[in-house]
Amino acid sequence: MPGVLYHNGDILTMELQLYVQAVLIEGGRIRAVGTKQQLEAIGGPDIETVDLQGRTLMPAFIDAHSHLTAYASTLAFADLSQAKSFAQIKKILLDFQKEQGLKKGAWLVGFGYDHNQLAEHVHPDKAFLNTISADVPVLITHKSGHMGAVNQRALEIAGIRAGTPDPEGGQIGRVEGSREPNGYLEEKAFMALATHIPAPDREEQKALLQRAEREYLKYGVTTVQDGLLQEQGFALLRDTPLTVDVIGFADLNQCPKLLSDHPEYRMAYREHLKLGGYKIILDGSPQGRTAWMSEPYEDAPAGYRGYPVYSDVQVAGMIEAALQDRVQLLAHCNGDAAAEQLISCYERALMSHPDAPDLRPVMIHAQTVRRDQLARMKRLHMIPSFFIAHTLYWGDVHCKNLGKRAYAISPARSALALDLPYTFHQDTPVLSPDMLRTVQCAVTRTTRSGVVLGREECISPLEALRGVTVNAAYQYFEEGEKGSIRVGKRADLVILSANPLKTPAREIGEIEVLATIKDGIVCYQKG
In angstroms, how far apart are the furthest CA atoms of the chain? Predict the structure, then answer.
């Protein structure tokens, strides 16, 4: 195929030479950069020339953490993300049930409610969900994915009753003054019940996965993570034609043999899919007050600090497995106590493995990681991947839950000061994979009500863009292939309506993705 020459716009390389006049791509890779005249001579008479007309061309975005197959599954559920009250949740679910023509007995499922945004300011429970249906099992998932609520029929199907104990790393809500389940479930209790929902047939699953993939492309993302992958999700990814590159991280607790069972995918792409290592979850979410903190939540009864998912012995065993297998470990840590558990266990594990290679372990979310902990992470080569958009979407809630600690969440500037590589993510399906909105959040750190959460932790637009390009490529050991416009790298590119470095900080999230290019091919174009 003839090469394609892009020119006449802001071509942002993310390299030391930040801008170039033109770029030539050929065979899915960047062949040359320079002036239009130079590249026309290199490309020959058959090259295609694309006039950017003043728009911005830059490296495509790299998703540092999300859940692709889980996101795909949510596309089959009622969207509760805009619900502002119990009444609206009920209307959305009943309308969805009618529109979808759900068969008798089929589960009625909604995803994305946020109790912090509801008029009632509490989680729904079975008493409310029973008003939607007493016969059909009803389940709604909180936006965080860490908790949710079900009706009585769903509790019966799952066998949850008064005598059912709370699982380790989870809690069953109870009717006040009794042991009777009230329908609210969090962490492992909720995740266990959700497994009772029948999966769609295979062809529908593939269609949903391809819909999800198109959403990432719409936001300029060409490398996507599936973080907490199990065998059925891996099989779906393997059997579905993919356009984006997908990096899966096996659920070490549930599927410890996923990598050994599929060695051909270990750190090597096959049809755009590879396995990058293991994933574990050490605590919950700060907005749901299940993140494990070293100090109590504000106004918490009996000094409540959230809780861990695993003991230190269990975490040490998981780290040992990753070190022995010499693969990267991703660990979900929102609270600083969970961060401490990961850091301390990793420090001790490395004492037994002095010859271990640099596996670049990643602390996922790192919401309340402390500055002293960042310094220890630096010594471990442990990367913080910040869910920085929390500053906007839940910043006001964090102020209520954490008090002054909220001003130090997602401390990107502190990581930068330590020369500690950091990345940003949206934890999709928690949020859409909107990288430019995330960049804006890293620059402004402004809550919904207009509070700036720790101005000293704000970073520049260029520094924020590094978190979703070059740094994210480094997180995946792909810095030689992706993340910047450099000769020889993959032609994974995005065309934007404006230059994020020349746009007012509060408007960066409004920049439009006009086209997404994967391996030199335009895979998305705004209509």
Answer: 81
